[in-house]
Amino acid sequence: MKKFSFLLILSLLLFTACKKDHVDATNTKTLQSSINDMASSLPTIKQIKFNEALYILKTFGVEADGDINELKALGQLINGKKVPEIMAMADQVAQKNGIEWASTAPPSLGEMNIFGDEKAKESDPNDIKANSLSIITRPTGDNGEGATAIQIIPRLVDNAGTPVAFTGAGLETTLEVFSNGVKLSTAKNLMQDNNFKGFNLKFSSIPASKVVDNKIDITVTVKTTAKTFKMSKIGLDVNSSALNVPAPPKVDSTVVNQNPAVIDPNNPNANPANPTDPNATPATPKQPSADPKATVNKFLNNVSSQNLKAAFDASSNPSWGSYESFSNPTSGFGSIKNVSVKNITTNASNPNSASVNATYDVTDKNGRVTSLKATFGLKNVNGDWKISSYKINP
């Protein structure tokens, strides 16, 4: 009998010792098994909060499309972590996303299961009986030049269109923003009751180059246990002056890139082009025939007329990168609609390099005008002036 009792105790100890106290994300099976082990060692209330924390991290802490990919991303995020670490991570994610949730607060999101059990429980706060979804939109943040944002408030409603009363839920709510069929952004939050504050969509988060006719479309999705509700609003007006418009390209230095001949101090008579011939005459570079400011003026005129290939060919500036980068409609000269030149002067010039100042107004494709003072550095390339540096001055 004693032997039997000893074996029973030993088997229980071995079983307990095999339980994991940290996440093992080797695969989905080990992920679920290790999470179950960790949850089973907690009191009931803490088990619920632990599941809520995992749900917060899976829904808002990772970037992935679809439940399977979200689960894999979650596994990578929490692999090797213990319960206190996971709780702290969920607190940070909730705070960052403006979600009213805390690991130290009472359970508030219903019975969450990150492994996809969507069956309604006998008392499931996420099993909301509603007929459809409605959306309220309000322009906000008027700074004297129009609204700077739009408040988007979804409501679950019954057959009569009356908001359904509920509390203690944790309904995953997603906002998608489009313009002319192109998705611009996605945001998520939790609807815990029908007083949900919704989403505050700031126009400054939307790239102006991707908005067509100053209109956006929105789609809101709300998931309950038994049903997913979705509604869209088409053709919402945005304030074009509040959209995100990138500044023109800037360069920190006015240093003109040059390729001066390198002279050997031990052999000053050597020809850099042919260092093995000390008596050879150094090659004389071809002198540019044009005024360097004419090159700058032509460059600005080509940018103004959107002849960006010709403008790019007039430059030899590593800071502007490839033609694709130079002509980018968001971050490059492709965002410019018009250039109005006020003044161009040559600061300095020699056969190899020159410096030109220009004052001009830039109008972007949303009609915003910016006055600029810029210094262009130029270098002699086979008898032609090429723009080699560019700086916006205060």
Oligomer: single chain
What strand order characterises the main sheet? 4-3-6-7
**Uncertain segments:** 6-17, 252-266
Described by strand count, sense and barrel closure, the largest sheet is: 4 strands, antiparallel
**C-alpha-based Rg, rounded:** 32 Å
Measured as a percent range, the helix fraction is 10-25%
Mean pLDDT: 80
Q: Total number of β-strand segments?
A: 11
Shape: elongated
Strand content: 25-35%
Termini separation (Å)? 92 Å
* Order of helical and strand elements: HHHHHEEEEEEEHHHEEEE
Structural class: alpha+beta
Number of helices: 8
Detailed description of the structure:
It is a single chain. By secondary structure, the chain is of the alpha+beta class. Helix content is 24%, strand content 28%. The protein contains 8 helices and 11 strands. A 4-stranded antiparallel β-sheet has the order 4-3-6-7, with no helix packed on it. Helix 3 (44-60) packs across helix 4 and helix 3 packs across helix 5 (83-96).
